User: Fold these one by one.
Assistant:
Number 1:
Amino acid sequence: MANQDIIKDFPRVSADIVRRAAELQPAILADVAGRRGALNGRIRPLHPGMKVAGTALTVEVRPGDNLMIHAAISLAKPGDVLVIDGKGDLSSALMGTIMMNACRKLGIVGVVMDGAARDTVEIIEMDYPVFAAGTNPNGPTKNVPGRIGHPVSVGGVTVHPGDFVIGDADGVVVVEREKIEGLLPAAEKKVRDEAARIAAIQAGDTEAKWLNAALRAAGVLKEGETL
């Protein structure tokens, strides 16, 4: 009988869609997704130059125990991002350099965890993307069961296995597997529109043409008034 706590096979975002979406900023995808999917800002890259994009392999652990992370690493597929619900615990690190080296060797493209990492300098030097809620030199235990391949809550966002995950210096955004492809045209248009707006500003057109209408709608200005 299969272990119900470990789901090994689930649909993932296709590699072609991942490559296309990876060209975008997380902020752009969050905007076109209705300003949803951004993890709490406490989950940050260990270095601002780190970037990640891939499909979520979800892991739920007890605070301070990484047994199921080791199991998830052994089950991961190339292109996966480990997305770990560590319950926000920062009393001990869930992962360090040894595990990150294993992840890289296996084709796991990055780690996002609502918990702590350690060996920060070494991870930065190896240029492996890790997004964590903090750091702590304490090591974890390896004793407690958990779950793999189930929905998890990370940074206030529900993440399903196979969802699209992207992160940069701003933080991490997760987009549902079923929605990411449909959002790409709007995201790519937004990139073009923002580039055009920046070019206009640089040419001297700094007026926010929507502002007066928004102020009237909010009741700040009366009808017919302008700033």
Note: The mean pLDDT is 97.
Number 2:
Amino acid sequence: MEKYPLNPDDRDGSVPGRERLEAGEIDLTGSVPQPGALADVIFDAITEAEGVGEKIPDWGARVIARELANRFPVPGNLHHYAVTGSIDHLGLARELAIHAQFGDVQTKELCDLLGLYLIKQPAGRPGHPADITTAVEQGLQEHGAPFWAYLQLYPGEAPDDVVECFNDFHIGSFASLTDVVDELTEIKGFKAAMKEAEERWGFEDFVKLDQDRLERAVRASWDVVEFDGRFHVFMR
């Protein structure tokens, strides 16, 4: 069969015709590589929402999911949501936690934005609300971001009493790890005693606390999830 020579100006020359997209069209299945187009649409969505996750438009949320899903070689919950719009809060929370933990700063920001959007959405397919509210949805409605952080830790399917489990295990949410150390340890008393000893012996400012070691001790003692700029702490 005769073949026409490739057009040197056709950047998609290697893409089969049936997979080519019109200008401005986004492929949510991930079959067609579109890193530049995805970045542009995500920027438009964040701009429209003024950087507020809860205000991300529906189309923007699914494009963010597509961008994040493309970074994993195996299709998962993010891929399924990008393609179908169907929401599984527990599965999405876990997958976003992995991206946030191992991704760069921009990835973490995208995970937070999408998480804030998903907290406000009902489970299941868009336009087909469930007859009953699930326990997970109830927890998100009642507790918002801290409950989303708890879902990122949950090891299996959420039981009917998942809200009660959250109430039992959630210690608090803090603006920084320093606040966690101050509120959950005896560090304030130790600092006061150390200051008194320094002044008594004339060694002011000679002793400094190892802040990194303190933070490691906190993470070793409790489960700490950073989400949307706050640190949510849970008993183990």
Note: The radius of gyration is 23 Å.
